[in-house]
Amino acid sequence: xxxxxxxxxxxxxxxxxxxxxxxxxxxxxxxxxxxxxxxxxxxxxxxxxxxxxxxxxxxxxxxxxxxxxxxxxxxxxxxxxxxxxxxxxxxxxxxxxxxxxxxxxxxxxxxxxxxxxxxxxxxxxxxxxxxxxxxxxxxxxxxxxxxxxxxxxxxxxxxxxxxxxxxxxxxxxxxxxxxxxxxxxxxxxxxxxxxxxxxxxxxxxxxxxxxxxxxxxxxxxxxxxxxxxxxxxxxxxxxxxxxxxxxxxxxxxxxxxxxxxxxxxxxxxxxxxxxxxxxxxxxxxxxxxxxxxxxxxxxxxxxxxxxxxxxxxxxxxxxxx
Length: 321
What we know:
Layout: H1 5-30, H2 45-52, E1 60-62, H3 68-73, H4 78-85, H5 119-133, E2 139-144, H6 151-162, E3 167-173, E4 176-177, E5 180-181, H7 182-185, E6 202-206, H8 210-225, E7 231-236, H9 254-260, H10 267-277, H11 283-306
Parallel strand pairs: 1-2, 2-3, 3-7, 6-7
Antiparallel strand pairs: 4-5
Helix pairs in contact: 1-2, 1-10, 1-11, 2-8, 4-11, 5-6
Protein backbone atom coordinates (compact mmCIF):
# COMPACT_ATOMS: atom_id res chain seq x y z
CA UNK A 1 0.00 0.00 0.00
CA UNK A 2 1.52 3.32 -1.12
CA UNK A 3 -0.01 5.61 1.50
CA UNK A 4 2.09 7.89 3.68
CA UNK A 5 1.26 8.47 7.34
CA UNK A 6 0.08 11.96 6.41
CA UNK A 7 -2.32 10.53 3.85
CA UNK A 8 -3.72 8.05 6.38
CA UNK A 9 -4.34 10.85 8.86
CA UNK A 10 -6.00 12.73 6.00
CA UNK A 11 -8.36 9.79 5.49
CA UNK A 12 -9.26 9.92 9.17
CA UNK A 13 -10.02 13.62 8.79
CA UNK A 14 -12.21 13.00 5.75
CA UNK A 15 -14.27 10.35 7.54
CA UNK A 16 -14.62 12.61 10.55
CA UNK A 17 -15.63 15.56 8.35
CA UNK A 18 -18.41 13.42 6.83
CA UNK A 19 -19.58 12.28 10.27
CA UNK A 20 -19.62 15.77 11.78
CA UNK A 21 -21.40 17.20 8.73
CA UNK A 22 -24.10 14.54 8.94
CA UNK A 23 -24.55 14.86 12.70
CA UNK A 24 -25.01 18.62 12.36
CA UNK A 25 -27.38 18.06 9.46
CA UNK A 26 -29.55 15.74 11.54
CA UNK A 27 -29.72 18.39 14.25
CA UNK A 28 -30.70 21.07 11.73
CA UNK A 29 -33.49 18.94 10.26
CA UNK A 30 -34.91 17.96 13.66
CA UNK A 31 -34.93 21.62 14.79
CA UNK A 32 -36.71 22.76 11.62
CA UNK A 33 -33.82 24.71 10.12
CA UNK A 34 -33.78 22.49 7.03
CA UNK A 35 -36.89 21.00 5.46
CA UNK A 36 -37.47 18.07 3.15
CA UNK A 37 -36.17 14.50 3.16
CA UNK A 38 -32.54 14.09 4.21
CA UNK A 39 -30.74 10.75 4.12
CA UNK A 40 -27.67 10.40 6.33
CA UNK A 41 -24.42 8.55 5.56
CA UNK A 42 -23.40 7.93 9.18
CA UNK A 43 -21.67 4.57 9.54
CA UNK A 44 -20.60 4.29 5.91
CA UNK A 45 -17.82 6.89 5.87
CA UNK A 46 -15.03 4.41 5.10
CA UNK A 47 -16.54 3.54 1.72
CA UNK A 48 -16.62 7.05 0.26
CA UNK A 49 -13.26 7.93 1.80
CA UNK A 50 -11.48 4.76 0.71
CA UNK A 51 -12.80 4.94 -2.83
CA UNK A 52 -12.27 8.65 -3.46
CA UNK A 53 -8.77 8.58 -1.96
CA UNK A 54 -7.77 6.38 -4.91
CA UNK A 55 -9.15 8.82 -7.51
CA UNK A 56 -7.87 11.93 -9.29
CA UNK A 57 -9.85 15.17 -9.35
CA UNK A 58 -10.54 14.58 -13.06
CA UNK A 59 -12.11 11.17 -12.36
CA UNK A 60 -15.90 11.08 -12.17
CA UNK A 61 -18.34 9.87 -9.54
CA UNK A 62 -22.09 9.44 -9.55
CA UNK A 63 -23.81 9.47 -6.20
CA UNK A 64 -27.13 8.54 -4.60
CA UNK A 65 -29.88 10.02 -2.45
CA UNK A 66 -27.47 9.32 0.46
CA UNK A 67 -24.66 11.25 -1.16
CA UNK A 68 -23.17 13.85 1.19
CA UNK A 69 -20.32 11.53 2.14
CA UNK A 70 -19.35 10.88 -1.48
CA UNK A 71 -19.29 14.58 -2.25
CA UNK A 72 -17.14 15.48 0.75
CA UNK A 73 -14.74 12.62 0.04
CA UNK A 74 -14.34 13.81 -3.56
CA UNK A 75 -13.42 17.28 -2.35
CA UNK A 76 -16.76 19.02 -1.90
CA UNK A 77 -16.68 22.08 0.38
CA UNK A 78 -18.86 21.86 3.46
CA UNK A 79 -19.92 25.52 3.35
CA UNK A 80 -21.19 25.31 -0.24
CA UNK A 81 -22.92 22.02 0.53
CA UNK A 82 -24.57 23.43 3.62
CA UNK A 83 -25.73 26.48 1.69
CA UNK A 84 -27.30 24.18 -0.89
CA UNK A 85 -29.14 22.29 1.83
CA UNK A 86 -30.44 25.62 3.14
CA UNK A 87 -31.62 26.38 -0.43
CA UNK A 88 -29.37 29.43 -0.66
CA UNK A 89 -27.97 31.16 -3.74
CA UNK A 90 -24.38 30.42 -2.65
CA UNK A 91 -24.92 26.66 -2.70
CA UNK A 92 -23.36 24.31 -5.24
CA UNK A 93 -26.53 24.35 -7.36
CA UNK A 94 -27.62 27.87 -6.39
CA UNK A 95 -30.16 26.48 -3.95
CA UNK A 96 -32.08 24.48 -6.55
CA UNK A 97 -30.62 21.03 -5.93
CA UNK A 98 -31.04 20.43 -2.24
CA UNK A 99 -29.81 17.37 -0.40
CA UNK A 100 -30.25 14.84 -3.21
CA UNK A 101 -28.98 16.68 -6.29
CA UNK A 102 -25.67 18.36 -5.48
CA UNK A 103 -23.19 18.38 -8.37
CA UNK A 104 -19.84 19.99 -9.17
CA UNK A 105 -18.37 19.18 -12.56
CA UNK A 106 -15.02 20.77 -11.66
CA UNK A 107 -14.56 18.07 -9.02
CA UNK A 108 -15.89 15.32 -11.28
CA UNK A 109 -19.07 15.05 -9.20
CA UNK A 110 -21.75 14.30 -11.79
CA UNK A 111 -24.49 14.61 -9.23
CA UNK A 112 -26.21 12.99 -6.32
CA UNK A 113 -29.48 11.48 -7.49
CA UNK A 114 -32.90 11.05 -5.90
CA UNK A 115 -33.78 8.26 -8.35
CA UNK A 116 -32.62 4.87 -7.10
CA UNK A 117 -30.35 3.18 -9.64
CA UNK A 118 -29.99 6.25 -11.86
CA UNK A 119 -26.26 6.75 -11.26
CA UNK A 120 -24.74 3.72 -13.04
CA UNK A 121 -25.95 4.66 -16.55
CA UNK A 122 -24.53 8.18 -16.08
CA UNK A 123 -21.19 6.73 -14.96
CA UNK A 124 -21.19 4.48 -18.03
CA UNK A 125 -21.80 7.52 -20.23
CA UNK A 126 -18.89 9.31 -18.60
CA UNK A 127 -16.76 6.20 -19.04
CA UNK A 128 -17.64 6.05 -22.72
CA UNK A 129 -16.69 9.72 -23.09
CA UNK A 130 -13.32 9.06 -21.46
CA UNK A 131 -12.65 6.14 -23.78
CA UNK A 132 -13.73 8.15 -26.83
CA UNK A 133 -11.48 11.07 -25.86
CA UNK A 134 -8.56 8.77 -25.16
CA UNK A 135 -7.82 10.07 -21.65
CA UNK A 136 -7.29 7.85 -18.61
CA UNK A 137 -10.16 9.12 -16.47
CA UNK A 138 -12.28 6.55 -14.68
CA UNK A 139 -15.87 6.76 -13.51
CA UNK A 140 -17.15 5.44 -10.19
CA UNK A 141 -20.79 4.76 -9.50
CA UNK A 142 -21.93 4.37 -5.90
CA UNK A 143 -25.19 2.49 -5.35
CA UNK A 144 -26.80 0.27 -2.73
CA UNK A 145 -28.02 -3.29 -2.47
CA UNK A 146 -31.55 -2.13 -3.18
CA UNK A 147 -30.55 -0.23 -6.32
CA UNK A 148 -28.85 -3.36 -7.66
CA UNK A 149 -32.33 -4.76 -8.35
CA UNK A 150 -33.07 -1.96 -10.81
CA UNK A 151 -32.97 -2.60 -14.55
CA UNK A 152 -30.88 0.53 -15.08
CA UNK A 153 -28.04 -1.03 -13.11
CA UNK A 154 -28.08 -4.21 -15.19
CA UNK A 155 -28.16 -2.24 -18.44
CA UNK A 156 -25.17 -0.24 -17.22
CA UNK A 157 -23.25 -3.39 -16.25
CA UNK A 158 -23.95 -4.93 -19.63
CA UNK A 159 -22.77 -1.94 -21.67
CA UNK A 160 -19.70 -1.35 -19.50
CA UNK A 161 -18.70 -4.98 -19.99
CA UNK A 162 -19.32 -5.12 -23.74
CA UNK A 163 -17.39 -1.91 -24.42
CA UNK A 164 -14.73 -2.49 -21.72
CA UNK A 165 -15.36 0.92 -20.22
CA UNK A 166 -13.31 2.42 -17.36
CA UNK A 167 -16.14 2.20 -14.83
CA UNK A 168 -16.02 0.99 -11.24
CA UNK A 169 -19.32 -0.10 -9.73
CA UNK A 170 -19.23 0.35 -5.94
CA UNK A 171 -21.99 -1.38 -4.02
CA UNK A 172 -22.60 0.05 -0.58
CA UNK A 173 -24.29 -2.94 0.99
CA UNK A 174 -25.62 -1.34 4.16
CA UNK A 175 -28.04 -4.25 4.78
CA UNK A 176 -31.25 -2.34 3.98
CA UNK A 177 -33.13 -1.15 0.91
CA UNK A 178 -35.16 1.59 2.59
CA UNK A 179 -36.90 -0.53 5.27
CA UNK A 180 -36.29 -4.04 3.87
CA UNK A 181 -33.35 -6.23 4.83
CA UNK A 182 -31.24 -7.52 1.95
CA UNK A 183 -32.16 -11.13 2.77
CA UNK A 184 -35.81 -10.27 2.13
CA UNK A 185 -35.40 -8.63 -1.29
CA UNK A 186 -32.63 -10.65 -2.95
CA UNK A 187 -32.00 -14.31 -3.58
CA UNK A 188 -28.22 -13.87 -3.74
CA UNK A 189 -26.12 -13.67 -0.59
CA UNK A 190 -23.62 -11.30 -2.20
CA UNK A 191 -24.81 -8.56 -4.53
CA UNK A 192 -21.51 -8.83 -6.42
CA UNK A 193 -22.47 -12.34 -7.57
CA UNK A 194 -24.46 -10.53 -10.24
CA UNK A 195 -21.26 -9.26 -11.85
CA UNK A 196 -20.46 -12.80 -12.99
CA UNK A 197 -23.35 -12.69 -15.46
CA UNK A 198 -21.64 -9.82 -17.25
CA UNK A 199 -18.09 -11.22 -16.98
CA UNK A 200 -17.10 -8.34 -14.76
CA UNK A 201 -14.49 -9.11 -12.08
CA UNK A 202 -15.65 -8.40 -8.55
CA UNK A 203 -14.25 -8.20 -5.05
CA UNK A 204 -15.93 -8.11 -1.63
CA UNK A 205 -14.37 -6.00 1.11
CA UNK A 206 -15.06 -4.92 4.66
CA UNK A 207 -16.71 -1.59 3.95
CA UNK A 208 -15.90 -0.32 7.44
CA UNK A 209 -12.15 -0.76 6.87
CA UNK A 210 -11.06 2.35 4.96
CA UNK A 211 -7.69 0.90 3.95
CA UNK A 212 -9.28 -2.29 2.60
CA UNK A 213 -11.66 -0.18 0.51
CA UNK A 214 -8.79 1.98 -0.72
CA UNK A 215 -6.67 -1.01 -1.71
CA UNK A 216 -9.51 -2.65 -3.66
CA UNK A 217 -10.31 0.62 -5.42
CA UNK A 218 -6.67 1.23 -6.27
CA UNK A 219 -6.53 -2.14 -8.05
CA UNK A 220 -9.79 -1.47 -9.89
CA UNK A 221 -8.61 2.00 -10.95
CA UNK A 222 -5.32 0.58 -12.25
CA UNK A 223 -7.20 -2.03 -14.27
CA UNK A 224 -9.59 0.57 -15.69
CA UNK A 225 -6.81 2.97 -16.67
CA UNK A 226 -5.04 0.13 -18.46
CA UNK A 227 -8.11 -0.46 -20.63
CA UNK A 228 -9.16 -3.72 -18.99
CA UNK A 229 -12.72 -2.60 -18.40
CA UNK A 230 -15.03 -2.41 -15.38
CA UNK A 231 -14.79 -3.85 -11.87
CA UNK A 232 -17.40 -4.28 -9.18
CA UNK A 233 -16.52 -3.68 -5.53
CA UNK A 234 -19.00 -4.74 -2.85
CA UNK A 235 -18.43 -2.91 0.42
CA UNK A 236 -20.20 -4.51 3.36
CA UNK A 237 -21.15 -1.76 5.79
CA UNK A 238 -24.11 -0.62 7.90
CA UNK A 239 -26.48 2.32 7.94
CA UNK A 240 -26.38 3.56 11.55
CA UNK A 241 -29.26 6.01 11.08
CA UNK A 242 -32.66 5.37 9.56
CA UNK A 243 -33.49 5.57 5.88
CA UNK A 244 -34.24 9.26 6.40
CA UNK A 245 -34.12 11.69 9.32
CA UNK A 246 -37.24 10.94 11.33
CA UNK A 247 -37.52 7.29 10.27
CA UNK A 248 -39.18 5.41 13.22
CA UNK A 249 -36.98 2.37 12.39
CA UNK A 250 -39.50 -0.30 13.38
CA UNK A 251 -37.80 -2.79 11.06
CA UNK A 252 -34.66 -3.38 13.17
CA UNK A 253 -33.68 -3.69 16.81
CA UNK A 254 -31.76 -1.18 18.87
CA UNK A 255 -29.38 -3.99 19.83
CA UNK A 256 -28.47 -4.60 16.19
CA UNK A 257 -27.76 -0.96 15.54
CA UNK A 258 -25.78 -0.58 18.77
CA UNK A 259 -23.52 -3.49 17.82
CA UNK A 260 -22.46 -1.64 14.65
CA UNK A 261 -21.64 1.46 16.68
CA UNK A 262 -19.14 -0.43 18.82
CA UNK A 263 -15.42 0.37 18.76
CA UNK A 264 -14.62 -2.74 16.72
CA UNK A 265 -17.13 -1.97 13.95
CA UNK A 266 -17.55 1.81 13.69
CA UNK A 267 -15.24 2.81 10.81
CA UNK A 268 -13.93 5.97 12.47
CA UNK A 269 -13.31 4.45 15.90
CA UNK A 270 -11.60 1.45 14.29
CA UNK A 271 -9.28 3.60 12.19
CA UNK A 272 -8.51 5.94 15.05
CA UNK A 273 -7.35 2.96 17.14
CA UNK A 274 -5.20 1.74 14.27
CA UNK A 275 -3.55 5.12 13.84
CA UNK A 276 -2.73 5.20 17.54
CA UNK A 277 -1.60 1.56 17.81
CA UNK A 278 0.73 1.90 14.82
CA UNK A 279 2.13 5.24 16.03
CA UNK A 280 0.93 6.98 12.89
CA UNK A 281 -0.60 9.79 14.96
CA UNK A 282 -0.97 10.67 18.64
CA UNK A 283 -4.18 11.45 20.49
CA UNK A 284 -3.47 15.19 20.65
CA UNK A 285 -3.17 15.35 16.86
CA UNK A 286 -6.43 13.49 16.32
CA UNK A 287 -8.24 15.57 18.95
CA UNK A 288 -6.98 18.73 17.25
CA UNK A 289 -8.36 17.50 13.94
CA UNK A 290 -11.71 16.86 15.63
CA UNK A 291 -11.87 20.40 16.92
CA UNK A 292 -10.83 21.93 13.59
CA UNK A 293 -13.53 20.00 11.75
CA UNK A 294 -16.17 20.87 14.35
CA UNK A 295 -15.27 24.54 13.91
CA UNK A 296 -15.41 24.16 10.13
CA UNK A 297 -18.93 22.69 10.27
CA UNK A 298 -20.17 25.45 12.58
CA UNK A 299 -18.77 28.06 10.19
CA UNK A 300 -20.46 26.28 7.28
CA UNK A 301 -23.81 26.61 9.05
CA UNK A 302 -23.19 30.30 9.70
CA UNK A 303 -22.27 30.79 6.04
CA UNK A 304 -25.45 29.06 4.93
CA UNK A 305 -27.71 31.01 7.27
CA UNK A 306 -26.18 34.35 6.28
CA UNK A 307 -26.27 33.64 2.53
CA UNK A 308 -29.05 35.14 0.39
CA UNK A 309 -31.87 33.08 -1.06
CA UNK A 310 -32.08 32.93 -4.87
CA UNK A 311 -34.20 35.69 -6.38
CA UNK A 312 -37.48 34.82 -8.09
CA UNK A 313 -35.99 36.17 -11.32
CA UNK A 314 -33.62 33.17 -11.34
CA UNK A 315 -36.44 30.63 -11.33
CA UNK A 316 -35.86 29.46 -14.91
CA UNK A 317 -32.11 30.08 -15.00
CA UNK A 318 -29.97 26.95 -15.57
CA UNK A 319 -33.06 24.87 -16.27
CA UNK A 320 -32.10 24.37 -19.91
CA UNK A 321 -28.57 23.97 -21.26
